[in-house]
Amino acid sequence: MIVAIDGPAGAGKSSVAKALAERLGFRYLDTGAMYRALTWLALHEGVPLDDGPALEALADATPVGFGERGTVTIAGTDVTQRIREPEIDAAVPVVARHPEVRAVMRQRQRALGREGDSVIEGRDIGVVVVPDAEVKIWLVADPAVRARRRHAERDGLGMDELAEELRRRDARDAPNTHRAPDAIAVDTTELSLPEVIERITTLVDEARAGVG
To answer: Which residues, other chains included, contact 1 with Cβ-Cβ below 8 Å and sequence gap of 6+?
Structure first.
């Protein structure tokens, strides 16, 4: 079974997907980390970020790996922490916008998803990456709440700056952020993480039982 988790930045995708995968005993796949890892490697090796074919070749030659406890590796290097740095935040949209890069990543994501029960989170997961996912969740949250969550994750940025960053990111990500027609919306604004997990777990149980 595949559970697809989509939604805008700050809606809680990563936290929810990780906790849900642990609750269900599923593999957790962070598709955004794959683009971040490729971005880190491109910067490390001096590959121009505006060169789609070169980035495609780099992605094809150096698959991203996922280990236990959420570790992310590429080219034999653990980049779990490095891919969350501000430099990667700024550069990853440039890398991810290349169609040839997205094609390589989507192929890998589908292959990983087929290896067993998985929770896959990112953008366009339920629409493009795994449109046949048995459960599709669309996470949303109030913009102010999303900014507060980002503030808890980042050092050195004020709330107003983070709110503006999210606004710009929403506009930038819009072409690759689509809700699948059969996705179930879960508003996390006033829900705790355990409450969100409980709600989605119920949906997974219903899908397994053929309810709905």
So the answer is: 26, 117, 118, 134, 135, 204, 207, 208
- Copy the structure tokens of residue 125: 């997961």
pLDDT digits (tens, 9 = 90+) for 71-106: 899 999 999 999 999 899 889 999 999 999 999 999
Render pLDDT for 18-56 as a digit per residue (tens, 0 to 9). 999 999 999 899 999 999 999 999 999 999 999 999 999
pTM: 0.81
Q: Where in the chain is the domain with CATH 3.40.50.300?
A: 1-26+117-206, 32-116
In single-letter form, the type of residue at position 2 comes to I
CATH code of the domain occupying 1-26+117-206 = 3.40.50.300
Instruction: Assign domain 32-116 to a CATH class.
Output: alpha beta
